[in-house]
UniProtKB/TrEMBL annotation:
Organism classification: Bacteria, Pseudomonadati, Pseudomonadota, Gammaproteobacteria, Oceanospirillales
Pfam families the UniProt entry points to: SufE
InterPro entries according to UniProt: Fe-S_metab-assoc_dom
SUPFAM superfamilies tied to this protein: SufE/NifU
Protein name per the record: SufE family protein
Length: 132
């Protein structure tokens, strides 16, 4: 992922979608930019608990700045991960902890894709992103 300049374009792309189908196509396109994790990285330790689909999240910190790698067995979820990670990639841990990620996520127009079971998984991802 590691390109924080994508934040605006991803947000703008999703906000420009005028239908559920358009949002779906955008998420599938976005899913292709998420670098796949190796089987060695897909460990129970990296697995996000509470997700309907299998989701793995790796957080690395360098000089106080966080970088994220994630993957899912579901293409749509990979697109959602790209959108979520675009909000936090390359930011300091304390800045991420102070963000209202639920509000930020709501601005990405993903609500039609976040069924109640998927929402629980997304909330688990947001929670993990904001851990100290």
């Amino acid at each position: 992922m590691n390109n924080s300049n994508q934040t605006l374009t991803i947000k703008e792309q999703l906000q420009a979608c005028r239908s559920k189908e358009e949002t779906f196509k955008t998420l599938v396109t976005l899913s292709k930019i998420l670098q796949r994790l190796s089987s060695e990285e897909k460990t129970d330790e990296n697995k996000v608990k509470g997700c309907e689909s299998a989701v793995w999240l790796i957080v690395e910190e360098s000089n106080g700045i966080r970088h994220f790698n994630a993957d899912s067995d579901a293409k749509l979820m990979r697109g959602v991960l790209v959108a979520i990670l675009s909000l936090v990639e390359g930011k300091a841990a304390k800045d991420i902890q102070q963000m209202n990620l639920k509000v930020e996520l709501a601005e990405l127009n993903l609500s039609s894709y976040l069924t109640s079971s998927r929402t629980n998984g997304v909330l688990a991802i947001l929670s993990q992103l904001q851990q100290p």
